[in-house]
Design a protein that fits this description.
Helix content is about 55%, strand content about 10%. The protein is mostly helical and about 130 residues long. It has one domain: Arc Repressor Mutant, subunit A (Orthogonal Bundle), CATH 1.10.10.10. It has a three-stranded antiparallel sheet with strand order 1-3-2.
């Protein structure tokens, strides 16, 4: 029988928590929102400060309607907020939402939770109680 490091041992409870957690649903919604390359680029641009559509259009080299489309999705998941001034709209990151995304990624997929050595398939049955 192989010796295992129990502190890195994945239990059935941890697997159940990972696969049925509300955190998964929250993370999924946020990941869907940033799963487009242009939306991810927009978030990167906004990390340096507030921008209007024309700033984003010029920086990314994409059309105004496409920028507007992407900017209509990001506020829906709370990652971007809009400030209106006259006829202009200015977009900025919602820092709390970006921190939540970072936190959820770490909680759900944290590298430190992954057992080392990485278990082979036959080891997994033992880990989740299928022996």
């Amino acid at each position: 029988m192989r010796k295992r490091n129990n502190s890195k041992h994945v239990t059935a409870e941890l697997l159940a928590e990972c696969t049925h957690s509300e955190k998964i649903e929250s993370l999924l919604e946020m990941l869907k929102a940033i799963s487009d390359a242009n939306r991810l680029r927009i978030l990167c641009l906004l990390s340096s400060g507030e921008k209007c559509v024309c700033d984003i259009e010029e920086s990314l080299g994409i059309s105004q309607p496409l920028v507007s489309h992407h900017l209509s999705i990001l506020p829906d998941v709370g990652m971007v907020k809009v400030r209106k001034s006259g006829v202009w709209c200015y977009y900025s990151l919602v820092l709390e939402s970006i921190k939540r995304l970072d936190h959820l990624l770490k909680e759900v997929l944290e590298a430190d939770k992954i057992p080392s050595p990485y278990p082979r398939r036959e080891d997994c049955d033992e880990v989740i109680g299928r022996v």
